[in-house]
Write a structure and sequence with these properties.
Blueprint (H helix, E strand, L loop, with lengths): L1 H29 L12 H10 L3 H4 L6 H27 L5 H45 L1
Helix pairs in contact: 1-2, 1-5, 2-4, 4-5
């Protein structure tokens, strides 16, 4: 159960970073003249929670099959794309063009891929470190 919360919070922070980077980059390129209020600061936290809720059940299951992990990440990606587009429409209104939405789609996808690859590499490193420790313990026990 504790590991589920740890993984959920880790992914929640990654999703917030993805959202912040995507909206920030697209906003600075295409919507420089938009006035930003202090309430915008809370948008990634709220969106991150919204994005993560559909996959909450999967975080507390011990043994996930590969298709479940792929499904979880696909649902997160769809939620992030839809939420980001909707948020941009609400925040910026008709000021932005279709090209901005396309750029945001690409930006969200790129950051989603990057964070997925980085987190998978870190998990693989952690698993390799644990396997090395187990191998060393076995070798000491055999000696």
């Amino acid at each position: 159960m504790e590991n589920g919360w740890k993984k959920f919070l880790s992914d929640y922070i990654l999703v917030q970073a993805e959202t912040t980077l995507s909206i920030g980059i697209i906003g600075t390129i295409f919507a420089r003249d938009i006035k930003v209020s202090l309430s915008y600061f809370f948008i990634p936290a709220i969106l991150g929670l919204f994005y993560m809720l559909p996959c909450l059940v999967l975080y507390f299951k011990d043994d996930l099959k590969v298709w479940q992990i792929v499904l979880q990440r696909f649902i997160e990606w769809i939620m992030i794309e839809v939420g980001t587009m909707y948020t941009m429409k609400i925040l910026f209104g008709e000021v932005i063009s279709k090209a901005v939405y396309i750029a945001a789609f690409i930006s969200v996808s790129v950051f989603m891929i990057l964070t997925t690859v980085i987190s998978d590499l870190l998990e693989k490193k952690e698993i390799n470190d644990l396997n090395t420790k187990l191998k060393n313990i076995r070798e000491k026990g055999d000696a």
